[in-house]
Each structure stands twice: as structure tokens, then as C-alpha cells.
Amino acid sequence: KAGVTQTPRYLIKTRGQQVTLSCSPISGHRSVSWYQQTPGQGLQFLFEYFSETQRNKGNFPGRFSGRQFSNSRSEMNVSTLELGDSALYLCASSLQGRSGYTFGSGTRLTVV
Amino acid sequence: SQQGEEDPQALSIQEGENATMNCSYKTSINNLQWYRQNSGRGLVHLILIRSNEREKHSGRLRVTLDTSKKSSSLLITASRAADTASYFCATDPRTSGSRLTFGEGTQLTVNP
Predict the structure, then answer these.
(1) Domains of chain B and any CATH numbers
(2) pLDDT tens by residue, B38-71
(3) Per residue of chain A (112 residues), what is the pLDDT tens digit?
(4) C-alpha B40: how far from its chain's center?
(5) Of A56, A99, A104, the CB nearest to B42
(6) Which residues of A touch B100 (CB under 8 A)?
(7) Preceding omega of A39 cis (within 30 degrees of 0)
(8) Is A24 near chain B, with CB under 8 Å?
């Protein structure tokens, strides 16, 4: 079966712009989580969506938002980009959450 | 902030040797999971151990969990050059809903 697909793979944006990242989970998986990975802070949880509802949220400012569609595909949006938002953004899907997750290859965002 | 701490931060061994990585965490957990990451790519789920389990095996991997000490270890036996990667432990805390809290990771290098 197809894995978790994240698009785009790479992105370069300018400070102040906004960006939307996309994640298509494994077919049948209803839980989609987002993580930010940076050299300084490591892997940090952003939020989790389950059946179109945000079920859990990490400690990130309101500039970071997300949503999930009825087909379980998810998007995350970062507004008013800052240099510190440069990171690898990883999406993970699971059947119900609270079990092993399948991660996508990530979107590497560079803010200049 | 990261709940887990991993030890060592870096490990370099020869092919055929065993590699042991340790992880400590701070809160009660539902389960603990180990992931591998190659060169800033996506995370690959290796193994999940539930809080009521003490040891689990999968191929060349052996994971132990000591909930009284809030620690886990991952043993990779008969290592191969292809095992070179970063290894992360991730806990699913009881109190935080469906999310993972990652350790800082161990960079394993297996020399041919």
C-alpha cells in the first residue's frame, strides 16, 4: 500500500510570507500528526487531527495551524514566516493514534 | 521541550558488533516506540513496547522497558553498515493524549 505522501519536498520562502504543507496519510488511517524537527529543538509535536477534528495541540504559536479533510488528507499552514521556522516538517499517520506511526519523508522549509 | 534523553548521543562501532542505545523519560507512558532516521529523511518505525511489557524482539532488534526506572534500551545485534542512522525513542504519555514526545536521538555509525 502507498505510504504517507508529503508535498512539496522542499520549499524556500521569504520572511513574512505564509506557507501551506500537505500530507496524504495511508489509506484508511484517520489520525494525522505533524512534527517540526530542527537541530536546536529536535522533534516537537505540532498537532494531531482525527476525523477532521484537532484532537491535540503542541506548544506552538497561533501562526501554526492545520486542518484535516474528509478524506483524511491534512494541511498545515504557517503564517508570517520567521527565520526560526526553517525546519523539516514531518507528517505521521496511524489508524487511530496511540500506536506505531508511519511518517512521510517530510517537507524541508527554508525561510530566508 | 523533549521528555526523553538518549545516551549516548553518538556511537561508532564496527560491522558485526552490537549497538546499545538507552533512553530515559519523565512521565507515565502508554507505550514507548523506537524510530530510525536516515540523513534528515522521514522516520521509520522500528518497534513499540507497551507499558506492561518488559522486553520485545523484532529481527535483530531487542527492546527492554523498565517503567520503575523510566528507561528503555534498544539493542541492535550483528550491526551492518546499513544500520547507520539516527535512532530516536518516543513516548506516548498517559496524560497528553495521542502524541509522541521524542528524545534527542543517538547517531549510530557502523563502519564497514
Answers:
(1) 5-111 (2.60.40.10)
(2) 987 889 999 999 999 999 999 999 999 999 999 9
(3) 679 999 999 999 999 999 999 999 999 999 999 999 999 899 999 999 999 999 889 999 999 999 999 999 999 999 999 999 999 999 999 887 667 799 999 999 999 9
(4) 17
(5) A104
(6) 33, 35, 45, 92, 101
(7) no
(8) no
Substitution target in B48, B89, B100 with the highest count of A β-carbons within 10 Å is B100
CB contact under 8 A, B41 and A105: yes
Contact A11, A78 (CB under 8 A): no
Cα angle B21-B27-B29, degrees, rounded to a multiple of 5: 75
Q: How far is CA B94 from the centre of its chain?
A: 19
Name which of A21, A26, A37, A43 to mutate to probe chain B: the one with the most chain B Cβ atoms within 10 A of its Cβ. Answer: A43
